[in-house]
Every structure is written in structure tokens, then in C-alpha cells.
Amino acid sequence: MGVREVTRHTSKVIHRAAAGETVLITEHDRPIAMLVPLPTTGDPAVDTLIREGKLTPASNPGGLAALQAIMPAPASDSSDTAETVSELREDRL
Question: Is the pTM above the cut of 0.70?
């Protein structure tokens, strides 16, 4: 869809994207932009908040799955957490 048509029918183009259509915007027959629908999370309550602008989706490109894949490293010894924090703070003195 050409830029001129997008500017003439902006609300219609936006409604098409909101309905799930990806709109390719061109200028002199060259693609310059895409208007895409918001991705869904699978949770209707979250999707509604995002659509209403009350919630901003996480910027993590891997999404929740990438965060869940992070495994904490096992402790190499049986030291007490308080001792470790004290040792780290001593380095700053």
C-alpha cells in the first residue's frame, strides 16, 4: 500500500492491522515500512492491558521461555550467604 493511500485512509489501515493483517507500506513501489498487529501473549487479560496501553510488553526478544531457560549455577561450596556478602563488601573498603 502506498504512502499516499495510507495517509488518506489512516484509520482504515490501522483497523486492518488491528484485525490481524500485516500492511506493507511502499513509496515509489519500494517497501519502506510494515504496520503489524500487536503480538498476543495467550493471556486475554494481558493482551487487553497491552491493547489499552496500560501494560508494555517485555523487550526480551526470547520472551518468557528464554528467561525460564536460565538455570542458576550451583554453589561451588557450602558457604553461608551472609559470609559471602560480607566478603564482597570487604573488597570495597
Answer: no
